[in-house]
Design brief:
By secondary structure, the chain is of the alpha/beta class. It has helices spanning 14-30, 58-63, 84-100, 113-117, 122-138, 154-161, 177-180, 191-212, 214-233, 238-250, 260-264, 271-277, 280-288, 295-303, 324-339, 350-359, 367-378, 386-392; strands spanning 6-11, 33-38, 67-70, 77-78, 81-82, 105-111, 141-148, 166-169, 172-175. It is built from 18 helices and nine strands.
Length: 394
């Protein structure tokens, strides 16, 4: 499990709660994070001897302040009221303090059922969970939110779950489908009109890339054209071809949250920049759902850096967990990126880029997608870019 995540555990038994807390302790310690547990001490008392898999005594952790247990009245509630803004401010300060003390970040676990039981309105709790999501994306914070499923009705449990990108079950983390299937606003127009609006929006967003970097804009256009060509080679329906055309044009939409210097500076990225870079598919996904683009567009954007062996990002998906559109966009992105100039390197060229996907078919990339890509070039597909030519000049 990668650090800096926001996960939920809907536990139903004491054993499930113990598993969740055990995972919180092990993950936090292995990443050198300071640990905060918001809840009753009895939840953690069973770990008085050692933390499973680690040679740490819980009393030592408490004594060194590596782990701090904060009860309900000292954490969530103040003067009988739960204040989301105050709580987020507390976590921000705790994160800065942990870093100053030599930790890599802050790992937080909290039993949230008591917030609702205190009379807090659901909208206030949801506001807090959404703010935790933002905090995790912006800071070195890992958050484990624990809720007793036996005390929450099904509808409220779903609403809470939808604000967590990851879920924890039996010590294993997985992508939380509730998060990515959250309801979207609907528009009253026919599908053809919707596609025209979305295509126009995609073209407008494509032009935005010119503001930051011309090569980024051309990269998006190249990915779009190749993805469409691959889809046609695979004889996919026209709707899917159109979705891939749009997804290609805006697959790096999340890059707009980054600094211009990151996109144009030669040399490797700094650690913080790398973290931001690996989150751009999620940012792009969330932006695209506000239009709203068809789901095939949004999910292709989300998955275009995933690899079928699980080595990709942002969610480490494997095999069938990656949609066909995401698999097509992944191959298109790699070929286009390697074939052209970047500020930090010269282009590798078409032969090299095609050999890369051919060597890794079935391991990193879908075999059928690679075959369709190679076939597209054999049948006359080619890129058109002034950057490829100019970057090759001495």
């Amino acid at each position: 499990m990668k650090s800096d995540t926001h996960s939920i555990s809907l536990y139903g038994t004491a054993r499930d709660l113990r598993t969740a807390i055990d995972t919180f302790l092990k993950e936090g310690l292995s990443n050198n994070y300071r640990l905060l547990y918001f809840g009753p001490e009895r939840d953690v008392i069973s770990f008085k001897e050692t933390v499973s898999g680690h040679a740490y005594n819980l009393n030592d952790l408490l004594g060194s302040k590596t782990l701090e247990i904060i009860d309900f009245e000292r954490s969530y509630i103040e003067n009988g009221v739960f204040d989301p803004v105050r709580q987020i401010g507390f976590l921000q300060k705790a994160t800065l303090k942990a870093i100053k003390e030599g930790y890599n970040g802050l790992s937080v676990a909290g039993e949230g059922t008591a917030i609702l039981e205190s009379g807090t309105k659901m909208e206030e709790l949801l506001k807090y969970e959404a703010s935790v999501n933002d905090l995790v994306e912006e800071s070195p914070v890992t958050a484990y939110c624990l809720y007793d499923s036996s005390k929450i009705d099904r509808r409220n449990a779903l609403e809470i779950s939808r604000l967590h990108p990851h879920t924890l079950r039996e010590s294993e983390f997985s992508v939380n489908q509730d998060y990515y299937r959250a309801p979207r606003r609907t528009l009253e127009y026919d599908s053809a009109s919707r596609l025209d609006i979305c295509r126009g929006t995609a073209n407008s967003l494509l032009q935005m890339f010119r503001i930051k970097s011309i090569y980024v804009e051309e990269h998006e256009e190249n990915v779009s054209k190749l993805a469409s060509a691959i889809a046609k080679e695979m004889a996919l329906d026209s709707f899917t071809v159109t979705c891939l055309e749009m997804a290609g044009k805006i697959h790096d939409l999340g890059m707009n949250s980054m600094f211009l210097d990151m996109l144009t500076r030669p040399g490797p990225l700094h650690a913080l920049e790398t973290r931001l870079l690996r989150k751009h598919p999620i940012t792009g996904f969330e932006i695209s759902r506000g239009v709203p683009f068809p789901d095939k567009v949004s999910y292709a954007i989300l998955q275009h850096h995933e690899r079928i062996d699980g080595s990709g990002y942002p969610n480490g998906l494997k095999d069938s967990g990656i949609g066909l559109e995401g698999g097509i966009l992944a191959v298109s992105e790699v070929v286009a990126a390697m074939n052209f100039y970047r500020p930090y390197r010269k282009p590798f060229g078409l032969e090299y880029s095609l050999d890369e996907i051919d060597r890794n078919r079935g391991s990193l990339y879908r075999t059928e997608v690679v075959e369709a890509c190679l076939s597209a070039f054999e049948n006359g597909f080619s890129f058109e870019s002034s950057l490829q030519t100019s970057a090759s000049q001495p």
